[in-house]
Amino acid sequence: MTTRKNSSGPVMNHDPFQEMGTSAESADDGVGLNATSPAAEVTALDAKENIVTLGESLTIQEVAGMLETLRRSLELGGTVTLNAGDLDQVDGAGIQLLCTFVKEAVNQHIEVKWSATAEKLQSAAELLGLLEVLNLPIKQAA
Prior knowledge:
By secondary structure, the protein is α/β, with parallel strands linked by helices. The chain has 3 helices and 6 strands; from the N terminus they run βββαββαβα.
């Protein structure tokens, strides 16, 4: 049986926000995906209220489009409200993106709130010990 050591090191070593330039051009990842991929269509950014809707799926296929959406929400400043109420699928890449986004928001003194969270996101974050990192509400046992 393998046990994991608790460490105070970073949750992840790769910061996708660090690689982003201020250019408005689409970033090609070498596989033909870019910031204007169809994944961006399942997300919405309401600039007036700075609300980001995560859609039904946040997996490795949607991360490229969501990265651009989250980057734009940071540029708007203020409070960013994430809506994950419809999220039905989330994988490690999606969780990593959300962790990086929240970390970057904190660094920029931008508050991140959740208007809705799906049970799958809540469960994945709890399993990985990332509820606090993602600023997700901790559900109390009944």
